[in-house]
Amino acid sequence: MKFASDLRVQIFADGADKASMLELYRQPHIKGFTTNPTLMRATGVTDYQGFALDLLATIQDRPISFEVFADEEPEMEEQARHIAAWGKNVFVKVPVMNTEGAPTYDLIRCLSSEGIQLNVTALLTLEQVRRVCDALQGNAPAYVSVFAGRIADTGRDPVPLMREAVALVNDANAQLMWASPRELLNVFQADEIGCHVITATTDILKKLPLVGKDLHEFSQETVQMFRRDAVKSGYSLPTAKHKVPAVSRR
User: Fold this and answer.
1) Alpha carbon distance 206, 224 (integer Å)
2) What's the pTM?
3) Quick one: CA torsion of 189, 190, 191, 195, rounded to 10 degrees?
4) Contact criterion met (CB below 8 Å) for 136 and 112
5) Which residues contact 3 (CB under 8 A, 6 or more apart)?
6) Where are the alpha helices (DSSP H) in 85-138?
7) What's the topology of domain 4-210?
């Protein structure tokens, strides 16, 4: 098994807690950041632009993605231009479709051709990957964000799809982003197939020190945890002096 330091895939921290993001910024293995309106709402962010500019005052040398939240294409375009102006390391997250299912390929083509750095998000099919790659024009850096974790949530193995997506994205001079991973193993799967980037929440990132851990030792620590929590909780069962009548097995 590879150790975290041997991975080729870039790890981007996914979240919206300022303190956690700035702490992770001090970690050299975190190569970038992503967030979205849902994560921001969960952490109580009320000022979208204020939150973003506050982060950008410190995070200036690694890519960071902020998402448009309009639903009509003209307003999405206006928001994209506004967000892009926040910093040279900013990538504008544009969803692959709006809430009515109308694709945003024309908008992607327009913004990309003008040199705006994009992170096209919420893709789940190879057809979407093909269409997005076709829409990415010019030399503007771009990420194609496929939600592999959501694919797995439907009972499908995302690895074959992601492997094909790598080739499509390479041809478009973009980078494939493995989004919404569900476990640390996904980091190694992404690395094995040549995926360029994987996003990871703090819960997953905290597991990186476990990579390569001795499994016997891990087993013992698990038993110790069960014992420790039982004692802390004050659990007890009847002793030999107060036996519960045996259950008949006839």
Assistant:
1) 20
2) 0.90
3) 150
4) yes
5) 211, 212
6) 105-113, 126-135
7) TIM Barrel (3.20.20)
Gyration radius (Cα) of the chain, Å: 23
Burial track 156-176 (b if 16+ CB lie within 10 A, e otherwise): eebbebbeebbebbeebebbb
Q: Exposed/middle/buried for 150, CB within 10 Å: 0-12, 13-18, 19+?
A: middle
Closest of 166, 197, 179 to residue 124, by C-alpha: 179
3-state DSSP percent of the chain in helix, strand and coil, to 5: 45, 15, 40
**100-143 per-position pLDDT tens digit:** 999 999 999 999 999 999 999 999 999 999 999 999 977 799 99
Length of the chain: 250
* CA–CA gap between residue 196 and residue 187 (Å, rounded): 11
